[in-house]
Structures are given as C-alpha cells and as structure tokens.
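Record 1 of the preview.
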Amino acid sequence: MPLNAEVSFTWVGHGTWKVRSAKGKEILIDPWVMNNPAAPEMLKTVDRCDLMLITHGHFDHIHDALEIARRTKCTIVTNHEIGVWLGSKGIDGESIVAGNQGGTIETLGIKVTLVHAEHSCGITEDGHLIYGGEACGLVIEFENGFTIYFAGDTDVFGDMALIAELSKFDVAFLPIGDFYTMGPERAAKAVQLLGVKTVVPMHFATFPILTGRPSQLQELVGPGVRVLDVKPGDTV
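->
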C-alpha cells in the first residue's frame, strides 16, 4: 500500500531515495547512486533529476552529487557550507539553494525545511576532510500537502518532539543501522518522540556493521506503529 497515492518513494539503498512528487517532479535525496553497493543496477543511471536534496557531506550521501548535478542541471537544496562547496566545483550558483537549520526553502512547488540532526558532516576530498557545516534532517512538504520527516543520519534527540509539533508530518524516514547512527532501540525512542504511526527504516544492512533491522524496530514499537520492511529497489 502506498504511503500517499500521489507521491512515491523508491529506495536506492543505504540513505538514498528517488522520489516522484505529487506533480511529477523527480527528486533525489542524498545521492549515493552509481557507487552505492546496495543499489540495484536499474537505479544506477539517473537521466532526470529536477530536485536534489543533501542532508550532509559524508561520501555515502553526497558521492555522486556533482556528476548527477552536471548531467541533469537540477536544483539543489542543502546547507550553506555544502552549497559553497558545490559552487566551488563549478555547479551553477543559480541552481544551488543553500539554507540552514530552521529555514524553509520553497522551490518547484515543494517546501523543504532544514532541521537539526545529531551527526557530523565532513566532505572527503583528495584524502582530506573539508568542513561541511552541520548535518541536517529534512521536513518535506509536497505539492498536495503530504509531508514527511527525513531524518538523514542522526541519533535520537529530545527536540524531535518539537520538530513534530511544528511540522505535522505523516511519515518518518529513520536510520536504524546502528554504529554510525541510532540503532533500533534508540530509533524506537525517536518514534515515540515523533508520534508517527508509519516509519520507513533506512541506513541499514549496506555493510555488516550496520546490524539494525526493521523487524527489531517493529517489535520495539509494537502493533500501533507500522514499520515498513523495504529492500533496495522497492517503491512505497
């Protein structure tokens, strides 16, 4: 059953998603595509992207951003520091919309609010780490009003309840892999703070160290919350 009949989400794998908006816009969130070991071959070619959203600068969320942006000429929404870095790599500044936490950006009929995340953010370049600002989560409101919380990479934090109070979203996309983000037990607390009834897990199983699984989260949150068990290539 789709989350919303007018919006579809296809899991590329790890933290990367392809989204078809209510008005047919093609959106790519955290573009680790061609080099993503979890991605099905059929999803490794991106011929069209209208909007790219980047939560933070780690390679497993930004690795293919430059190549895809150059090919598709998409609009990019991210934080200020990553926006500056993209510009330094020759990406057209008019296509970059770089905000910061608390700000809402409206582009192509879609509203994106950058919100807090508990995570680091460094861009790897030529063997060095470049400061990438602060990692963000995203609250995305589509053209039909359907709204999601896309946590990006994060630990649980108390102000998830404040984000939920201010944003009124329908679904939460949460990392559950553990080690680099929260695992199922901490994600269960996040579900409680967010007050959502539908959760889409991500950032798990790509590597052996990412041990969290949707079934573990489902057991912890109980039958009152629907935890989707998706696999790379699945569309919801």
